[in-house]
Amino acid sequence: MSVLRSVRILPRNVSAIRTYASIPQPSDPVPSKQPSSSSPPTLQQSPNIPTTWSTGQNPKPHAYDNQRFEQTALQFQPNPQSAMGMVNKDPVRLVNGRRAVCDGGE
C-alpha cells in the first residue's frame, strides 16, 4: 500500500468567497473616549502623545476592559514613550553617504 494518498481538490464554495462593492474603511475613534493631556499619565496612550494615533486603536483606559486584564493595575505597567512623539521632537535628517551615526543624544 502506498504511503502517499491521492489528494482530492475540493471546489471552493461560492458563498464562502466575499466580494465587496467598496473597500471597508475603519470607523472613526469616539472623541469622548480619547484621553487628554490633563488625564493621569497612566491613562494616556504614552507620556509624549496623550491620544491614540490610529483609528483602529483603542484608547488605553478602554483597551483593558475585558476579563484578560481584570487584575492589571495600570500604574505598575510599563508606559514607554511613543516613537512618533520622539521623531516629532527630533525629526529625521538626511545624511551624506550610506551611514548614519547616533551619539546617544549627547
Q: Supply the number of helical segments.
A: 2
Low-confidence stretches: none
The helix content is: 10-25%
Class of secondary structure makeup? little secondary structure
Distance between the termini: 72 Å
Largest beta-sheet characterization: none
Taking Cα atoms only, what radius of gyration do you get, to the nearest Å? 24 Å
Q: Which percent range describes the beta-strand content?
A: under 5%
**Overall mean confidence score, pLDDT:** 70
- What is the count of β-strands? 0
Taken from the alpha-carbon principal axes, the silhouette is: extended
The H-and-E topology, N to C, reads as HH
Walk me through the structure.
The structure is a single chain. The chain is largely without helices or strands. The protein is 10% helix and 0% strand. The longest helix is centred in the C-terminal third of the chain and has 7 residues, at 83-89.
Task: Describe this structure in a few short sentences.
The protein is low in regular secondary structure. The protein contains two helices and no strands.
